Protein backbone atom coordinates (compact mmCIF):
# COMPACT_ATOMS: atom_id res chain seq x y z
CA UNK A 1 0.00 0.00 0.00
CA UNK A 2 1.05 3.60 -0.51
CA UNK A 3 2.27 5.75 2.38
CA UNK A 4 1.06 9.17 3.40
CA UNK A 5 1.79 11.71 6.14
CA UNK A 6 -1.21 12.95 8.04
CA UNK A 7 -1.56 15.16 11.11
CA UNK A 8 -4.27 15.31 13.76
CA UNK A 9 -5.98 18.18 15.55
CA UNK A 10 -2.96 18.54 17.86
CA UNK A 11 -0.68 19.03 14.83
CA UNK A 12 1.08 15.72 15.50
CA UNK A 13 1.78 13.81 12.29
CA UNK A 14 2.60 10.22 11.45
CA UNK A 15 3.40 8.12 8.41
CA UNK A 16 0.54 5.71 7.69
CA UNK A 17 -0.73 3.61 4.81
CA UNK A 18 -3.70 4.18 2.55
CA UNK A 19 -5.37 2.22 -0.22
CA UNK A 20 -8.59 1.72 -2.11
CA UNK A 21 -11.69 0.73 -0.14
CA UNK A 22 -13.02 -1.25 -3.11
CA UNK A 23 -11.70 -4.74 -3.79
CA UNK A 24 -13.28 -6.27 -6.88
CA UNK A 25 -12.50 -9.76 -8.03
CA UNK A 26 -11.22 -9.56 -11.58
CA UNK A 27 -13.11 -11.87 -13.96
CA UNK A 28 -11.14 -14.37 -16.03
CA UNK A 29 -12.18 -14.48 -19.69
CA UNK A 30 -11.62 -17.65 -21.70
CA UNK A 31 -12.21 -18.72 -25.26
CA UNK A 32 -14.57 -21.54 -26.25
CA UNK A 33 -11.71 -24.06 -26.06
CA UNK A 34 -10.76 -23.04 -22.52
CA UNK A 35 -7.73 -20.86 -23.29
CA UNK A 36 -7.26 -17.60 -21.47
CA UNK A 37 -8.20 -14.66 -23.66
CA UNK A 38 -5.77 -11.82 -24.35
CA UNK A 39 -6.70 -8.21 -25.02
CA UNK A 40 -5.07 -6.64 -28.08
CA UNK A 41 -5.33 -3.29 -29.83
CA UNK A 42 -6.34 -3.56 -33.48
CA UNK A 43 -6.88 -0.94 -36.17
CA UNK A 44 -10.58 -0.23 -36.60
CA UNK A 45 -10.36 2.67 -38.99
CA UNK A 46 -7.92 5.16 -40.45
CA UNK A 47 -8.22 8.94 -40.85
CA UNK A 48 -9.78 8.45 -44.28
CA UNK A 49 -12.40 5.94 -43.07
CA UNK A 50 -13.80 7.69 -40.02
CA UNK A 51 -17.50 8.57 -39.97
CA UNK A 52 -16.69 12.27 -40.34
CA UNK A 53 -14.29 11.70 -43.26
CA UNK A 54 -16.78 9.50 -45.11
CA UNK A 55 -19.60 11.98 -44.56
CA UNK A 56 -17.45 14.81 -45.91
CA UNK A 57 -16.51 12.72 -48.95
CA UNK A 58 -19.89 11.27 -49.93
CA UNK A 59 -22.38 13.62 -48.30
CA UNK A 60 -26.01 12.60 -48.71
CA UNK A 61 -24.99 9.62 -50.86
CA UNK A 62 -23.11 7.95 -47.99
CA UNK A 63 -25.92 5.52 -47.11
CA UNK A 64 -26.17 4.12 -50.63
CA UNK A 65 -22.36 3.95 -50.95
CA UNK A 66 -22.17 1.91 -47.74
CA UNK A 67 -24.74 -0.53 -49.17
CA UNK A 68 -23.02 -0.87 -52.53
CA UNK A 69 -19.43 -1.07 -51.26
CA UNK A 70 -17.34 -0.94 -48.09
CA UNK A 71 -15.62 2.46 -48.02
CA UNK A 72 -15.44 2.31 -44.22
CA UNK A 73 -12.98 -0.59 -44.37
CA UNK A 74 -9.35 -0.06 -45.30
CA UNK A 75 -8.47 -3.57 -46.50
CA UNK A 76 -4.73 -3.01 -45.98
CA UNK A 77 -4.93 -1.49 -42.49
CA UNK A 78 -8.08 -2.89 -40.87
CA UNK A 79 -7.33 -5.43 -38.12
CA UNK A 80 -3.60 -4.77 -37.89
CA UNK A 81 -2.17 -5.14 -34.39
CA UNK A 82 -0.87 -1.87 -32.96
CA UNK A 83 1.69 -1.44 -30.17
CA UNK A 84 3.74 1.37 -28.66
CA UNK A 85 1.08 4.03 -29.22
CA UNK A 86 1.78 7.69 -28.56
CA UNK A 87 -0.78 10.46 -28.11
CA UNK A 88 -0.78 13.30 -30.64
CA UNK A 89 -3.15 16.19 -31.28
CA UNK A 90 -4.66 16.81 -34.72
CA UNK A 91 -5.90 19.92 -36.43
CA UNK A 92 -9.34 20.23 -38.01
CA UNK A 93 -7.67 19.15 -41.26
CA UNK A 94 -6.46 15.90 -39.63
CA UNK A 95 -2.84 17.03 -39.58
CA UNK A 96 -0.47 16.64 -36.63
CA UNK A 97 -0.63 19.79 -34.50
CA UNK A 98 2.49 21.28 -32.95
CA UNK A 99 2.82 23.81 -30.13
CA UNK A 100 -0.56 22.83 -28.69
CA UNK A 101 -1.99 24.95 -25.87
CA UNK A 102 -4.61 23.28 -23.70
CA UNK A 103 -7.38 25.28 -22.06
CA UNK A 104 -9.71 24.53 -19.18
CA UNK A 105 -13.41 25.39 -19.54
CA UNK A 106 -15.30 26.32 -16.37
CA UNK A 107 -19.09 25.92 -16.38
CA UNK A 108 -21.83 27.22 -14.12
CA UNK A 109 -24.34 24.77 -12.57
CA UNK A 110 -26.83 25.51 -15.39
CA UNK A 111 -24.28 24.50 -18.03
CA UNK A 112 -23.32 28.04 -19.10
CA UNK A 113 -19.63 28.49 -19.81
CA UNK A 114 -18.19 30.82 -17.19
CA UNK A 115 -14.57 31.22 -18.29
CA UNK A 116 -11.69 29.74 -20.25
CA UNK A 117 -8.14 29.76 -18.98
CA UNK A 118 -4.91 27.91 -19.82
CA UNK A 119 -4.63 24.46 -18.30
CA UNK A 120 -2.47 24.44 -15.20
CA UNK A 121 0.12 21.75 -14.44
CA UNK A 122 -0.31 20.22 -11.00
CA UNK A 123 2.31 18.71 -8.70
CA UNK A 124 1.63 15.91 -6.24
CA UNK A 125 1.64 17.10 -2.62
CA UNK A 126 1.17 13.89 -0.63
CA UNK A 127 4.79 12.67 -0.63
CA UNK A 128 5.79 11.25 2.75
CA UNK A 129 8.89 13.47 2.80
CA UNK A 130 6.78 16.59 2.24
CA UNK A 131 4.24 18.46 4.31
CA UNK A 132 1.63 16.30 6.08
CA UNK A 133 -2.06 16.59 5.31
CA UNK A 134 -3.46 18.90 7.97
CA UNK A 135 -6.74 19.19 9.80
CA UNK A 136 -8.21 22.55 8.86
CA UNK A 137 -10.61 22.61 11.82
CA UNK A 138 -13.59 22.82 9.43
CA UNK A 139 -16.12 20.14 10.36
CA UNK A 140 -19.08 19.34 8.11
CA UNK A 141 -21.85 16.96 9.26
CA UNK A 142 -21.65 13.70 7.32
CA UNK A 143 -25.18 13.89 5.94
CA UNK A 144 -24.67 17.50 4.85
CA UNK A 145 -21.37 16.65 3.13
CA UNK A 146 -23.02 13.78 1.25
CA UNK A 147 -25.59 16.23 -0.11
CA UNK A 148 -23.08 18.98 -0.89
CA UNK A 149 -20.36 17.06 -2.72
CA UNK A 150 -19.96 14.27 -5.21
CA UNK A 151 -17.12 12.13 -3.88
CA UNK A 152 -15.17 10.63 -6.76
CA UNK A 153 -12.56 8.63 -4.84
CA UNK A 154 -12.29 7.05 -1.41
CA UNK A 155 -9.23 5.62 0.32
CA UNK A 156 -8.96 3.80 3.63
CA UNK A 157 -6.24 5.15 5.91
CA UNK A 158 -4.59 2.31 7.86
CA UNK A 159 -2.08 1.98 10.69
CA UNK A 160 1.34 0.39 10.14
CA UNK A 161 2.15 -0.39 13.79
CA UNK A 162 0.73 -0.18 17.30
CA UNK A 163 1.55 3.49 17.76
CA UNK A 164 -0.15 4.57 14.55
CA UNK A 165 -3.15 2.39 15.48
CA UNK A 166 -3.73 4.53 18.57
CA UNK A 167 -3.05 7.66 16.52
CA UNK A 168 -5.64 6.83 13.86
CA UNK A 169 -8.14 5.29 16.26
CA UNK A 170 -8.23 8.54 18.24
CA UNK A 171 -8.84 10.52 15.04
CA UNK A 172 -11.60 8.17 13.93
CA UNK A 173 -13.32 8.31 17.33
CA UNK A 174 -13.34 12.11 17.42
CA UNK A 175 -14.89 12.26 13.96
CA UNK A 176 -17.35 9.46 14.74
CA UNK A 177 -18.49 11.11 17.98
CA UNK A 178 -19.07 14.41 16.16
CA UNK A 179 -20.78 12.61 13.22
CA UNK A 180 -18.86 14.96 10.91
CA UNK A 181 -16.13 15.00 8.29
CA UNK A 182 -12.95 17.03 8.68
CA UNK A 183 -11.66 19.05 5.74
CA UNK A 184 -7.97 18.31 5.13
CA UNK A 185 -5.49 20.59 3.42
CA UNK A 186 -2.11 20.09 1.77
CA UNK A 187 0.96 22.26 1.32
CA UNK A 188 3.04 24.26 3.78
CA UNK A 189 0.05 26.13 5.24
CA UNK A 190 -2.42 23.26 4.95
CA UNK A 191 -4.79 25.26 2.76
CA UNK A 192 -4.16 23.69 -0.65
CA UNK A 193 -6.20 21.02 -2.50
CA UNK A 194 -4.89 17.46 -2.47
CA UNK A 195 -3.09 16.26 -5.62
CA UNK A 196 -2.46 12.52 -5.60
CA UNK A 197 -0.02 12.38 -8.55
CA UNK A 198 1.90 14.75 -10.81
CA UNK A 199 -0.43 16.20 -13.42
CA UNK A 200 -3.39 14.89 -11.44
CA UNK A 201 -6.67 16.56 -10.52
CA UNK A 202 -6.74 18.81 -7.44
CA UNK A 203 -9.27 17.50 -4.92
CA UNK A 204 -10.81 18.76 -1.72
CA UNK A 205 -10.18 16.06 0.86
CA UNK A 206 -12.43 15.07 3.74
CA UNK A 207 -11.70 12.60 6.51
CA UNK A 208 -14.52 10.43 7.83
CA UNK A 209 -14.20 8.28 10.94
CA UNK A 210 -16.12 5.24 12.17
CA UNK A 211 -15.61 3.26 15.37
CA UNK A 212 -16.98 -0.10 16.53
CA UNK A 213 -15.54 -1.14 19.87
CA UNK A 214 -11.80 -1.48 19.40
CA UNK A 215 -12.15 -1.36 15.62
CA UNK A 216 -11.98 1.77 13.49
CA UNK A 217 -12.30 2.89 9.90
CA UNK A 218 -10.75 6.13 8.71
CA UNK A 219 -11.77 7.05 5.17
CA UNK A 220 -10.21 9.75 3.02
CA UNK A 221 -12.83 11.03 0.58
CA UNK A 222 -11.91 13.19 -2.41
CA UNK A 223 -14.14 15.50 -4.40
CA UNK A 224 -13.78 18.14 -7.10
CA UNK A 225 -17.50 18.67 -7.65
CA UNK A 226 -19.87 20.60 -5.41
CA UNK A 227 -23.58 20.01 -5.84
CA UNK A 228 -25.59 23.22 -6.14
CA UNK A 229 -29.24 23.83 -6.87
CA UNK A 230 -30.10 25.83 -9.96
CA UNK A 231 -32.68 28.55 -9.41
CA UNK A 232 -35.06 28.84 -12.33
Task: Quote the distance from N terminus to C terminus.
Answer: 47 Å
Oligomer: single chain
The proportion of strand residues reads 25-35%
Please provide the count of β strands.
10
Shape: elongated
| Individual helix count | 4
The string of secondary-structure elements, in order, is EEHHEEEHEHEEEE
Helix content: 10-25%
Counting helices, strands and paired strands, the structural category is: alpha+beta
Radius of gyration using CA atoms only: 25 Å
Short description:
With about 230 residues, this protein is α+β, with helices and mostly antiparallel strands. The chain has helices at about 50-60, 60-70, 140-150, 160-180; strands at about 1-5, 15-20, 105, 115-120, 135-140, 150-160, 180-185, 195, 200-210, 215-225.
Structure description:
- There is one protein chain.
- It contains 4 helices and 10 strands.
- It has 232 residues and is an alpha+beta fold.
- The model has no long low-confidence stretch (mean pLDDT 89).
Amino acid sequence: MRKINISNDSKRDAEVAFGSTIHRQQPVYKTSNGKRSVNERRVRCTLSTTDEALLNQYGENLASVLVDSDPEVDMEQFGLKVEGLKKVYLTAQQKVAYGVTLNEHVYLPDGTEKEIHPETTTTANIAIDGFPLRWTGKLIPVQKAMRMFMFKKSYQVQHVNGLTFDFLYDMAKKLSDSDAMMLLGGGAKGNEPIVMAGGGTPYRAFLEGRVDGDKYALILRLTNMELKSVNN
